[in-house]
């Protein structure tokens, strides 16, 4: 998105709904069906959620659904910095709605407790594989960077039009296949914050890393993208609504 593009309220609404869907579908699969579908199924759910949301709402908001993506696009001069706060607030609100709906649904089963797992992220004892703080931090920075690079690449004016959501969804699926055993996969501060607020405990104590590391990864990706000499002009998916 260019810096002169005006953002309409419909863009914020699209970010709310799209992020809510990502959290409900992705974390919902982990919480409600994780023992049946496994890591591969959870990874597919997150990928499909962003793919479908991007096709449904990309023409309204650009289909960010992720503060790290919004900041990364702004750092790459694809999005106006003045519009970042509004998008981030919309994404956090959407994530809270998605997590709240999931809590209500999951609570309908006897014996459910958020302490048993609520799609949260963590390191050490809170990591699915017991991975260290350093391993988790590197995972989040590198994989978020890759994700933002994919988004910047497939929304370049020279990329084939119409396929960006598919590539983005597949990239997120791959990222989850790698990172779920490490930390449950964040690469999205809003997606991590909402479940942590409801779960509390270690998830809430450790969530700061999953707010910071993905943003660092997004900014580094933007810097690398510009070093590579890529175009600043985005294809339609990376645009917000026009004035």
Automatic annotation (TrEMBL):
<keyword id="KW-0472">Membrane</keyword>
<dbReference type="InterPro" id="IPR023271">
    <property type="entry name" value="Aquaporin-like"/>
</dbReference>
<dbReference type="InterPro" id="IPR022357">
    <property type="entry name" value="MIP_CS"/>
</dbReference>
<dbReference type="InterPro" id="IPR000425">
    <property type="entry name" value="MIP"/>
</dbReference>
<feature type="transmembrane region" description="Helical">
    <location>
        <begin position="203"/>
        <end position="224"/>
    </location>
</feature>
<keyword id="KW-1133">Transmembrane helix</keyword>
<feature type="transmembrane region" description="Helical">
    <location>
        <begin position="87"/>
        <end position="109"/>
    </location>
</feature>
<keyword id="KW-0813">Transport</keyword>
<dbReference type="Pfam" id="PF00230">
    <property type="entry name" value="MIP"/>
</dbReference>
<keyword id="KW-0812">Transmembrane</keyword>
<feature type="transmembrane region" description="Helical">
    <location>
        <begin position="12"/>
        <end position="33"/>
    </location>
</feature>
<dbReference type="InterPro" id="IPR034294">
    <property type="entry name" value="Aquaporin_transptr"/>
</dbReference>
<comment type="similarity">
    <text>Belongs to the MIP/aquaporin (TC 1.A.8) family.</text>
</comment>
<feature type="transmembrane region" description="Helical">
    <location>
        <begin position="163"/>
        <end position="183"/>
    </location>
</feature>
<feature type="transmembrane region" description="Helical">
    <location>
        <begin position="129"/>
        <end position="151"/>
    </location>
</feature>
<feature type="transmembrane region" description="Helical">
    <location>
        <begin position="39"/>
        <end position="57"/>
    </location>
</feature>
<protein>
    <submittedName>
        <fullName>Aquaporin Z</fullName>
    </submittedName>
</protein>
